[in-house]
Amino acid sequence: MKTFLDLARERRSIRRYQPKPVEREKIERCLEAARLAPSACNSQPWTFVAVSEPQQHAKLAAASFGGIYAPTAFAAQAPLIVAIVADKGSLATRFGNMVRDTSFYLIDIGIACGHFALAAADEGLGACIIGWFDEKGAAKALGIPPGKKVELLIACGYPDETPDARPRREFKDVCRFDKF
Q1: Residue at 62 is within a domain
Q2: CA distances for 3 relative to 9, 62, 97, 109, 118, angstroms
Q3: Is residue 80 part of a domain?
Q4: Structural domains counted in the chain
Q5: Would you say 83 and 48 are in contact if contact means Cβ atoms under 8 Å apart?
Q6: Among 51, 132, 133, 172, which has the minimal tally of Cβ within 10 Å of its Cβ?
Q7: CATH of residue 20
Q8: Nearest CA among 121, 107, 122 for reference residue 152
Q9: Is 1 a domain residue?
């Protein structure tokens, strides 16, 4: 049985996908993992929009990955694209954002996306979290209401590649105990 560390070590950002649909049950388990992610003040500043229906998927991909966003056009090949729609959070978290000069809702959705990507790997799927896309085009394609923003997309599907591990800095170079 794989441990969590095994899963964390083996997960890769996947950019080539098999043309095979992702089963609804697997999508739901990945979304559930993302939904359960912790957030500042339990604000849960997210809505996940899973797009796999072919016409809607094509509309979202065309609106998101053209022009200067072409470097992420590989995501259009993924049979599933998940949009992470952000809500800037509760009054308490927005106050905390000002005091700390930190956008906690962005941290929160990053954690949720990490949960999704690890759950996808656990399901035998590949995923790639994407920040370079036409946000306004994606929002229009998805019918996102005013006051909400598509912060990230996740391309997901059955991998059609096995990328090598990317270099990581050594443990001793990034981890400290008791003081810097």
Answers
A1: yes
A2: 10, 38, 35, 24, 12
A3: yes
A4: 1
A5: yes
A6: 172
A7: 3.40.109.10
A8: 107
A9: no
Instruction: Give backbone dihedrals phi and psi of 140, rounded to 5 degrees, phi first.
Output: -65, -45
Please give the Cα distance from 12 to 117 (Å, whole number).
9
pLDDT along the chain (180 residues), means of 10: 91 97 98 96 94 98 98 98 85 69 89 98 98 98 94 98 94 96
**What's the token pair of residue 45?**
């500043």
- pTM of the model as a whole: 0.92
**Distance, CA of 61 to CA of 63 (rounded, Å):** 5
Structural domain boundaries, residue 24: 7-160
Residue 18 within any structural domain of the chain: yes
Evaluate the CA torsion angle 45, 107, 17, 8 in order and state its sign: negative
Report the distance separating Cα 39 and Cα 61, nearest Å: 29
* CA separation for the pair 35, 113 (Å, rounded): 9
Contact 130, 110 (CB under 8 A): no
**3-state percent helix, strand, coil for the chain, nearest multiple of 5:** 45, 15, 35
